[in-house]
Amino acid sequence: MAAFGSFALLIALALAAYNLLAGALALRLIATGQPTAISPERLADTARRAGIAGFWAVTAAAFALVWSVFTNDFSITYILEHSNRALPAAYKFSALWSGQEGSLLLWAWLLAAYGFVLRLTHKQDVKLYAYAGAILAGIQFFFLLVLNFAAPPFALLKGAIPEDGNGLNPLLQYPEMVIHPPMLYLGYVGFSVPFAFALGALMMRYPGEKWIRITRVWTMVTWLFLTCGVFLGMHWAYAVLGWGGYWSWDPVEIASLMPWLTGTAFLHSVMMQEKKGMMKSWNIWLIFSTFLLTVLGTMLTRGGLVSSVHAFAESPIGYWFMVFMVIVLAVCIFTYILQYSHLKSERPIESLVSRESAFLFNNLVLIAACFVILWGALFPVLSEYFVGNKVTFDAAWYNRIAVPIGLFLLCLAGVGPLLPWRSTSFRSIRRNFVLPVIALWVTVGVCLLAGMRPWHDGAFDAGRFYALVAFALSAGVLTAIGSEFLRGMLVIAKQSGRNLIWAKYQLIRRNTRRYGGYIVHVGVVVVVIGLAGAAFNRSTESEMALHDKLVIGPYTLECAGFTQDANANYDSEYALLDVSRNGKKLFQMTPEKRVYLASQQPQTMVAIHSTVTGWDLYVVYEGVNPDTGQPIIKAFLNPLVNWIWLGVLLMAFGTLIALIPKKWSVNSGQ
Amino acid sequence: MAQTLGFIAGFLLLVALLAYTFWPENVFASQKEKTRLDYLLERKEQLNENLRDLNFEFRAGKYPVEDYQAQQAQLDSESSQLSAEIELLQQV
Prior knowledge:
Shape of chain A: globular
Strand content of chain B: under 5%
Radius of gyration of chain B: 28 Å
Helix content of chain B: over 70%
Shape of chain B: elongated
Number of strands of chain B: 0
Largest sheet of chain B: none
Oligomer: heterodimer
Largest interface: A-B, 55 and 49 residues
Order of helices and strands of chain B: HHH
Structural class of chain A: alpha+beta
Strand content of chain A: 5-15%
């Protein structure tokens, strides 16, 4: 299978090269009208078919790797290093992307799959799709070059073949790790498509903004995957790493956040270009930056430039990505300068208090956040290079900047929908903002009365202050969005004479993009409420012998015993903890410590008891005190964490609604 | 033996994919240039959508009358200019 896989990758590389060269040549011949022996359109069609054929070649290579891992072919170095015989089937599958070479193959396969769909649907706009297809071929060519020459997944082991493999990293042997990387990659790779369309539209001086409409579905689906990928990573960090948190500003986490920030900015400001013909240059550079950030992110994780629990081993392929980024950036700059006159805005922003301005502020804040975070991620590299001393920023540094920025964005999420296009009067502002502002201040009052004060033990507490601001702003934003829904529902209900529930369905159906977007904003609010709960986290740690007790918040944990278990994959030790409240036993928790036999690596398995509206009781079996021989239990009480996951589900739901084609209802009176 | 079989399978894959790529085909989509008329019709469609949004938001009480009338006048003026040029091009 190794030979077949390697051959398939070589075929894919040749097809990508043909796709790129023939596609570019055909476009050039059509543009210049040069007479040729072969019809340029026939040449363009063979280029398109080469792209489709390339998908099948990469699929064959991916199949070969899947086959090899499931047949325990330890003659292949990659399989030896990332799998073993006893590994459960689901984790054998995820071994495919746990390592450098396999994850690059996954990237190449997803890119080929996106290109496959694009090339099958090319009749929507043949010329634009031809440009986009050629650009995608160029990106695919790079990844296949890396796979064939720098990081071959089918490299064979030299010498005797061991009986069993080294096994999968224990950190990855968790259900979420089966879907987190593919989701994240679907997002990363997916941004190649809107990038290809944007660059192609610029190269051909595409008349009008219809290319945005064509690209919109791709962009939204990609953004959805990236959002789910980021939050699945957060949930994995929370459930597996055992430190009680979900985001530590790890460089690899940052690498996934940066394109998400610029991608979010693009999704918003592109509406202005579509509706008003504004911000054309800005949008082009947003999507260029988003794509470049996905490449930068993967370079950071693969090139060994930064230290991270997520990073792959240091490897020279970082230089390959650096060269690729420079080439892409050069092409983008050259095309932009050449076609600059095509990007003039059709009208300026007329007022600082308008929906256009809200979009612009939203973009500026998202870009500022991205830039600051990027600076923080790269500073250790730059400081080591220029000063010889590696200086890193801790989570507190990032939080000091990210939290106020996040709150300002939350505010815009409520302000933007209420502002009209072009300009507004004071009367209009008063009419639209009075209820959200009332809701905001009522929430402040209620929180203060409930004891949620921005000071703790007599000192100002920034975390609690920001939490209070977050709750207040959330109330304001939810009221703003609620008023948007209610106003629309009342109009439709009045015209049709039907009830509000029917009116709500018609309202959403009439403009799925807008109201789906509002549902996404509601999801964001719910996430922010969940994040704000971190200001009230508690933790405690203690040695626990049999029948010892540990108190945290309203819960009492009593050690009922310890037990052990073993299977072919790992040995484990459990602590049995009875949890009671007010003297009444509620449930039992079993935090676990495992040792994976193939790799001899330890791994904690956190026990979490969640309630939707209340607290997460989070318990970690830290191991045994070497001096006393007593087990150590660490317990956390984390409020509102479930709101984060609930919020993401809402964001996903809202995006799916927004993807449905809208229908102007006859009954709306339009 | 396994390696030889792998190469044979790879070669067969290569032949199949090359056959698909270069198969003689008489019918394929042509790259049509977008005309000025196509562009104007798209703009008109977007303007109509903007007008629909404006009317709906006014009925939902988001705009005072003066703001609504000013914006409507602007959009109507743009729409009229587009319609005039579209009519001219369609007559040609």
